[in-house]
Amino acid sequence: METVSAAARTAPAAVIVAIDGPSGTGKSSTSKAVAAQLGLSYLDTGAQYRAITWWMLNNGIDVTDAAEIATAAAKPVIVSGTDPSAPTITVDGEDASGPIRTQEVTSKVSAVSAVPEVRALITELQRTIATEAGRGIVVEGRDIGTTVLPDADIKIFLTASPEARAARRSGEVKGSDLAATREALIKRDAADSGRKTSPLAKAADAVEVDTTDLTLAQVVECVVTLVGEKQAAK
Ligand SMILES: Nc1ncnc2c1ncn2[C@@H]1O[C@H](COP(=O)(O)OP(=O)(O)OP(=O)(O)O)[C@@H](O)[C@H]1O
Ligand SMILES: Nc1ccn([C@H]2C[C@H](O)[C@@H](COP(=O)(O)O)O2)c(=O)n1
Q1: What spacing in Å lies between the alpha carbon of 233 and ligand 1's midpoint?
Q2: Which residue ranges does the record assign to the Cytidylate kinase domain (predicted)?
């Protein structure tokens, strides 16, 4: 007869939460808060694409040349720390959390992340991290529900008007130009939605949450409730 340990009998099943959406819809803030509240790990997949872009820029790779990007893609070692209260990202052992947020990286990341060889490597890394998260994980990005974790327990697609998203982003940087921020967001979303390989898209079975008129606390409560309902129905 098969024996089951006491720990295995009592341990709750790991829960996988996929949160996708365009830039500035609140994916990172929401995902971190939900993960912290539910005791889950957290993975910012955008940070991984930013990290590989930063490495390419630092290593003289022509980021307008897809073939050059593809050839170099496996060289950097990217490590993500998944504690929602202190997420980390290193490239070849170096802390990259600051440099990956520069304007230069933001303006180049869509081109680098569109290269299929980059996506294949980063997707594999993301799946390994999700598999190893003992209690479960909240993974946020653009293609998590459609491609990276199509069997996620719950998929959320966050949206917000371009005006609300631009206002949120402008609020982070003193003196920033609201119209220019809005145009930059729209341009990056168009590039991310228009690429051939796993574009930004809502999975057919994702729940869409429009955050335009919701506070961050309301969005977090909404997602925590949806996760709870899904787990209760299991
Ligand atoms: N519901 C909300 N109401 C008001 N501000 C919010 C809300 N959600 C997030 N924010 C703020 O908007 C900004 C962008 O949020 P966040 O970084 O979480 O978005 P994101 O979708 O992860 O963006 P990106 O994809 O560009 O990384 C942050 O300053 C955050 O504090
Ligand atoms: N799953 C993902 C996550 C991110 N990207 C790309 C596209 C984004 O413009 C960029 C930066 O993401 P952010 O830090 O703004 O969330 O990374 C992707 O292609 N797939």
Answers
A1: 30
A2: 17-227
Residues having CB closer than 6 A to ligand 1 are: 21, 23-29, 46, 168-169, 172, 211, 214-216, 219
Q: Which ligand is nearest to the CA of 211?
A: 1
ipTM of the prediction = 0.98
Ligand 2 within 6 A of 40 CB? Answer: no
Domain-embedded: residue 1 = no
pLDDT in tens, 118-153: 999 999 999 999 999 989 999 999 999 999 999 999
Answer yes or no: are the C-beta atoms of 157 and 203 closer than 8 Å.
Answer: yes
Does ligand 2 lie within 6 Å of residue 54's CB atom? no
What pTM was computed for the model? 0.95
Which structure tokens are listed for 136? 């479960």
Sign (positive or negative) of CA dihedral 74, 77, 82, 87: negative
pLDDT at position 198:
97
> 185: Cβ–Cβ under 8 A, 6 or more apart, which residues?
22, 23, 24, 162, 165, 166, 169
**Atom of ligand 2 minimally distant from the CA of 23:** 15
User: Domain for residue 7, yes or no?
Assistant: no
Q: Residue 76 domain-assigned?
A: yes
CATH number at residue 87: 3.40.50.300
Q: Is residue 175 part of a domain?
A: yes
